[in-house]
Amino acid sequence: MVIHSNLLSEGLEDILSTVLSESDDELLVINPTPDAIEALVSIATTFDGDLPRVRVVADESLLKDVVDDFIVASNAADLVDAGVLSLKTGIDGEENSLIVTESSVLALVTTDEHVAALATDDEEFVDSAYETYAAIWENASAFKLRTPSISVVRESLASDISEEIRADFDTVLSSLQTARGDGQGLDEVTISLLVAAKNDILLYDISKWGEDIGIASKATFSRTKTKLEDMGLIDTEKVPIDVGRPRLRLKLGDDRLRQADADQLAGVAQSLLT
């Protein structure tokens, strides 16, 4: 379907939702802003209907920063696994932000209060633009997401640890806007450890799970556990085993955390970490 008219909205979500609903089978997203990438992943993740294939070419440093958020990265990985989303780098950030299909070109323009998608379906211009940006896509470098998909995370938590910890992980994650661990939300390792402590899971089990699926190494889990333990958020108790050193069972270390429901756990933890 051709998008003939300009689109105007107060947010990128409305614009991108319309574009995904009305686009051809495939579209190129050229030099998107961080907000545009986050909105695109969010909308595509919950989209009701058939999605077009989305090929994104972005500035490498920008893309790395965006996918530092576990929520964005894990959902993007789901879309990549489903064959819906492809990510490449090869734009220096100076290009216009465009959405290009074989039948229309839209330029994304953002002001303080509104977002517009300025559209053209002029056949000669669209053909030239599509040819140009399709070539840029072909010559761009593939961007490899290092974060496991959220589906893999959920399924493996349930199968390798327990259904209860999967449910708590989902609840904690849904209570966060971002999961970066830089003051804008807890990172995925911290979330995993807190949820494990809430469910009295062994450090060995949660760290092995995290390393096996690619969240982080056992060493990273151990360092983060030590930090949380030093700050009083987590306690441990030794569990003897037949051979070797005792393993550590994780426990919540603060009454405020122990009394919190799963949807309150992240907020309480953040308040204790600041």
Write the layout of secondary structure elements.
Layout lengths: L6 E3 L2 H11 L3 E5 L3 H12 L7 E6 L1 H7 L3 H12 L3 E5 L8 E3 L4 E6 L4 E6 L2 H17 L1 E2 L7 H12 L1 H12 L13 H11 L4 H11 L4 H13 L3 E6 L7 E6 L2 H4 L3 H12 L1
Parallel strand pairs: 2-3, 3-4
Antiparallel strand pairs: 1-7, 2-5, 4-8, 5-6, 6-7, 9-10
Helix pairs in contact: 1-2, 2-4, 4-6, 6-7, 6-9, 7-8, 7-12, 8-9, 9-10
Question: How would you explain this protein's 3D organization?
Answer:
By secondary structure, the chain is an alpha+beta fold. It has two domains: 136 residues, 2-Layer Sandwich (Endonuclease, Chain A), CATH 3.30.870; 124 residues, Arc Repressor Mutant, subunit A, CATH 1.10.10. It is 49% helix and 18% strand. It contains twelve helices and ten strands. An eight-stranded mixed sheet has the order 1-7-6-5-2-3-4-8, sandwiched between helices. α2 packs across α4 and α4 crosses α6.
